[in-house]
Amino acid sequence: MRTLKVALLGCGNVGAQVARILIEDADALAARTGARLELSGIAVRNLGTKRDVELPQELFTTDAETLVKDADLVIELMGGIEPARTLILSALSNGACVVTGNKALLAQDGPTLYEEADKAGVQLSYEAAVAGAIPILRPIRDSLSGDRITRVLGIVNGTTNFILDQMDSTGAQFADALAEAQRLGYAEADPTADVEGHDAAAKAAILATLSFHTRFALENVHCEGITKVSAADIAAAKDAGFVIKLLAIAEKLTDADGGEGISVRVHPTLLPREHPLAAVRGAFNAVFIEAENAGELMFYGQGAGGTPTASAVLGDLVSAARRLVLGGPQRTETTTGHVPALPIDAAVTSYYIGLDVADQPGVLAKIAQIFAENGVSIEIMRQTIHRDAESNVESAELRIVTHRASEAALAATVEAVKGLDVINSVTSVLRVEGV
């Protein structure tokens, strides 16, 4: 049986599990692939680092460049931009197929990697870059390649989903929910990439690229995190029948002149509690797809973790190895379109707006007039009266859900509302999907 040399770059939580599976399941993988997958080496920065998985010490090396040159298949799990980018390009130019989970690199400089893979006629696979163990990229690329995807909604970051779920189920403040996520290992000591939405934005760019056959980079994604979502926002959403999730959204929009574009964005979003994504709890991930012919589809599962993500890596590896064994052209990216990325102002959705207002006659009429003047229609309006314990002055909290409107119209409406003398403050502005 033919032997294919596999170079592993990086041996963190995911890399260690990939190495373990390659060694322990060697016979099963050979039967599925038609070739022995020989782990030829593991490139690491520090040979002395203690790892949770026991692996043969002779496999470890700090010479990643040499390891890549002798490989048939390269698995890149180092993360970051460099030296990962240089090593992947080197592997591709040497004729090796590459499997990576590096979402940040793909979102920042994916086109360079795709072009090198096309030129070399080899396979670049990255199922593990989005939603961990969930098989989502291959179904988009292959199973739905004969259809037209119109919209993708995804909970693609387990850390933020855990935090928001904690706030929703326990009433915790953001800081307390984050601390619990860190205690359980769902959040890093520095959680910025997760809570500010950067991780989800990188995945949104990848999902949009595959779904709409046009290359989108991180700079094309509008990004907002969850740090400004308060316990009061969560409670108000709950009272109105919604749950707040951090969503990655990519959708096709058509303007009044018939021109098409793609809106790619990440932001906290209210979902009706009956929506399938609203039921995604804890650190789980899910991706909801709308297509012209297939209709609505949802993919759900473990979005992170060493063993689940290793499953996605091995799936890509077996696919690439089988193509090497059988011969013929490798499976490359299908970016055949050139649909422009649209700014956030072009997005069309419903909105939730929280207002603290004076409790006096005529307030609702003034607010309704501002909305009407800007072409934003109100669907739901709820009012709660509260009294300040110190001043004994009453004020009202208004919660408004609009019909679908453009981001530009909503922004103009909020700005105009702020100028009313009866408005104490705009407490929150959140987008709503699924209504």
From TrEMBL:
<protein>
    <submittedName>
        <fullName>Homoserine dehydrogenase</fullName>
        <ecNumber>1.1.1.3</ecNumber>
    </submittedName>
</protein>
<keyword id="KW-0560">Oxidoreductase</keyword>
